[in-house]
Amino acid sequence: MLKVYLDPCTVNCRKVLAGLDLMGAPFEQVHVDYFTGGHKSPDYMAINPNAALPAAVDGDLMLPESNAILMYAAEINGADDYYPRDPKIRADIHRWMLWEAATWFPSCYVYLVEYVVKPLLGAEPDAEVIAKEAPNWHKLAGILDARLAQSRWLTGDHVTVADIAVAAPMHLHPQQRLPVADHPNLQRWMVEGIEKLPSWQRTQPAVLNALGLG
């Protein structure tokens, strides 16, 4: 069985939890405390030398990177509904997951740090940091909004692991103060689509409780 090392408070761990739940994949969860630096321990770094969460182990396979974990779990569990084998659909899924990791996550993370992490640590948000990032965020959100004007989900009429991956960086969008209302198709997808998924709803309390927001 896939063993997953994570802390539900982090974006990428939430992504993996929601994605595994969506596809009904069995797994063993091992808690690694992010705020006490558990991800930097020698034992954990033997699994993921990047000292980042999450990571997964399946026999002799040690697999960091949240998107890789979702792809692998879908493959070994035959979750074709959420990771279709059609080469064109799968390429589109990969496109969005790569885009999320390289581009979307870093932009949303600025808002997460300023409006969620800093207050948790007793610090004030930096308005200049937000103002600097806002044009980039709106540009990226516009890309999503345009795509979601064409279909209910990112790759068509059915939810896939790509939707979970792209939603994860904005999983606390009210607390992050992400201006999703400026992008109505993105807002519809998140509020009426992602947040109505049972897998998303089941994994939300752990995030809120871990961050003291529940």
Q: What is the second-level CATH architecture of the largest domain?
A: Up-down Bundle
Uncertain residue segments:
none
Describe the global form: globular
Cα gyration radius (Å): 17 Å
**Total helical elements:** 9
> Total strand count, please?
4
- The helix fraction, in percent, is 55-70%
Oligomer state of the chains in this structure: single chain
Give the neighbour order of strands across the main sheet.
2-1-3-4
Structural class: alpha+beta
Distance between the termini: 31 Å
Portion in beta strands: 5-15%
Instruction: Classify the fold: give the CATH topology of the largest domain.
Output: Glutathione S-transferase Yfyf (Class Pi), Chain A, domain 2
Family: Belongs to the GST superfamily.
Organism: Acidisphaera rubrifaciens HS-AP3
InterPro entries: Glutathione-S-Trfase_C-like, Glutathione-S-Trfase_C_sf, Glutathione_S-Trfase, Glutathione_S-Trfase_N, GST_C, Thioredoxin-like_sf
GO molecular function: transferase activity
Mind explaining what this structure looks like?
The radius of gyration is 17 Å and the shape is globular. The mean pLDDT is 96. Helices cover 55% and strands 8% of the residues. The chain has helices spanning 11-23, 42-45, 66-76, 87-120, 127-148, 161-167, 173-176, 184-193, 198-210; strands spanning 2-6, 27-31, 55-58, 61-64. With 214 residues, the protein is of the alpha+beta class. The protein folds into two domains: 3-77, Glutaredoxin, CATH 3.40.30; 87-203, Glutathione S-transferase Yfyf (Class Pi), Chain A, domain 2 (Up-down Bundle). Strands 2-1-3-4 form a four-stranded mixed sheet, with helices on one face. It has nine helices and four strands, in the order βαβαββααααααα. The two termini are 31 Å apart.
